[in-house]
């Protein structure tokens, strides 16, 4: 069976910024792959190359078996793209937007109208269908944008940071919608800065850093690689912090980190919620008083810390905007 | 549901109309845009006809003739200003990711620009009609034959259409709508002022005269004056003055021949950065 997405050795630079350093990517049909990485790691660049908006400097890529460079029209007829910013016309109504994109997808007038109705209904936009987008909330715009990318029933859907900038409720709504698409068998490549999001939506995750793939795997594999969940505790006496780390060592899946000044101990554990019960019992037996203890999931920062030995840094600031179009960040 | 099949040219026409419809809807949603597009040339007419008009003493035939002379100049100037609107519109679409959406659709790519320029032409046609009415109100008249008058309007429309392609091309290279707003206008001002739009070329300093004579804006204004049968004092018999109409169509053809392919190429280019 042809791969939904297949890329070998994608390299792209913008002036002296090396955006991609040789990316390989394979996405099976019907799967959901999450590209996870901090700002500036190359996520959007990969999406733009795969959706025929940008040529790679070298390397090859195909979507549903069509070469992105030499068969762009074929690629465009099987993909849907939702970019980082809601790409809808704010002067048109929701329905007019969908019908416009439907017509440009070369649906007949009637099909475009039916499909627009279907999608408005599905994304809970029917009530607002005939209002101008100007009055839509951020969440509604994103949903309309996603609806627009589904107009041609794409077999491969690209979602570039679909929930960045959304409040938690709209984010959950977006996740539900994406999950239902996946359940219908759509292949999805999504990018995100949040491990939690990749975890929720993606069956496998590719971690990017400075245009390189630094890890690949299911979210469980990645988290285990990072050492699973973390027990974070604050001891009452600073003097106890090292002792606490020793007591908890048997439950740990990796080296504990101790910050004596903050009286804080961080222990990666594999056992999840069982581990915290065991830990509390062990600390109690050792008569170590604690003021706070919590189990938390690893974050992108943890993954980064463990994979690269450094904290994620936003590396866009010093690189002056070469193309001013980028200066419209957040301008939707 | 299935996609329709049509020959490529059929798709080009269908896509162009769909895109043009989008822009026309937009004009109806933001009537202010059209209002200001209409009001600007009208203001110029009133300003020059009545405020500066009194100061323009030496004009043969006096203020009345100057107004008749002025209108064709403002026609030409208005056609030039058509560039600014599309320049900003294109840059706005690019910065909002709408261009990327178009570019990711299996539509005819050149239809994005063809549709936008077509809608622009429709808007400019309205502006030219409004300007004609203003002209009639201040004493401008069509004194030539009906065929010549139609030819003048065809020339204005052709020229307007050609310049919007130049505007589109500029818009594709501007980093954001603010810069586009300035860039779209910056070069038009010297071009319209170093022309016969407001004053006959013969009254200008010698070094400027050849530039003003060949200036496409002058050619267009002069051609309109000739076709509408308006006063045209101080016209010499230099080549651009004798062949103003042919030269104007020529300029339009040159603009189209250069900027249609350039703009389409820029739009299709997949090497540029675009929005990150
Ligand atoms: N059009 C562009 N011009 C110049 N540099 C760019 C452009 N697009 C992206 N970059 C640079 O390429 C790198 C990767 O960017 P991008 O793919 O947008 O990352 P992400 O989507 O992960 O935030 C960044 O350093 C960014 O500054
Ligand atoms: Mg990005």
Overview features:
A: 332 residues, alpha/beta, Rossmann fold, 14 strands, B: 276 residues, mainly alpha, 12 helices, binds adenosine-5'-diphosphate, binds magnesium ion
Structural class of chain A: alpha/beta
Task: Give the ordered list of helices and strands of chain A.
Answer: EEEHEEHEHHHEHEHEEHEHEEHEH
The profile of the biggest β sheet of chain A is:
6 strands, mixed
Low-confidence stretches of chain A: 313-332
Q: Summarize the main sheet of chain B.
A: none
Fold blueprint:
The complex is a heterodimer of chains A (332) and B (276).
Chain A (H helix, E strand, L loop, with lengths): L4 E10 L2 E11 L4 E5 L6 H8 L7 E6 L2 E2 L4 H5 L2 E4 L11 H11 L4 H14 L15 H12 L6 E5 L7 H16 L3 E6 L2 H7 L2 E6 L2 E6 L1 H8 L2 E7 L5 H8 L8 E3 L4 E6 L3 H13 L4 E7 L3 H9 L24
Parallel strand pairs in A: 3-8, 3-9, 6-7, 7-8
Antiparallel strand pairs in A: 1-2, 1-4, 4-5, 9-10, 11-13, 11-14, 12-13
Helix pairs in contact in A: 3-4, 3-5, 8-11
Chain B lengths: L7 H22 L1 H22 L9 H34 L2 H6 L6 H28 L8 H27 L4 H10 L1 H6 L15 H6 L1 H13 L10 H4 L1 H25 L8
The structure holds adenosine-5'-diphosphate and magnesium ion.
Describe this structure in words.
The complex is a heterodimer of chains A (about 325) and B (about 280). In chain A, helix 6 links the parallel strand 7 (about 155-160) and strand 8. In chain A, strands 6-7-8-3-9-10 form a six-stranded mixed sheet, with helices on both faces. Chain A has a four-stranded antiparallel sheet with strand order 2-1-4-5. A four-stranded antiparallel sheet of chain A has the order 12-13-11-14. Chain A has two domains: about 5-225, Rossmann fold, CATH 3.40.50.300; about 225-295, 2-Layer Sandwich (Alpha-Beta Plaits). Helix content of chain A is about 35%, strand content about 25%. In chain A, helix 3 (about 95-105) packs across helix 4, helix 3 packs parallel to helix 5 and helix 8 (about 220-225) crosses helix 11 (about 300-310). Chain A has eleven helices and 14 strands. The longest helix of chain A has 16 residues, at about 170-185. Chain A is an alpha/beta fold and about 325 residues long. Residues about 315-330 of chain A have low confidence and may be disordered. The relative contact order of chain B is 0.14. Chain B is elongated, with a radius of gyration of 20 Å. Helices cover about 75% and strands about 0% of the residues of chain B. Chain B has one domain. Chain B has helices spanning about 10-30, 30-50, 60-95, 100-105, 110-135, 145-170, 175-185, 190-195, 210-215, 215-230, 240, 245-270. Chain B is an all-alpha fold. The chains are: A alpha/beta (about 325), B mainly alpha (about 280). The interface of A and B includes residues 108 and 328 of A. Bound molecules: adenosine-5'-diphosphate and magnesium ion (MG). The site of magnesium ion has 5 residues of chain A, from helix 1.
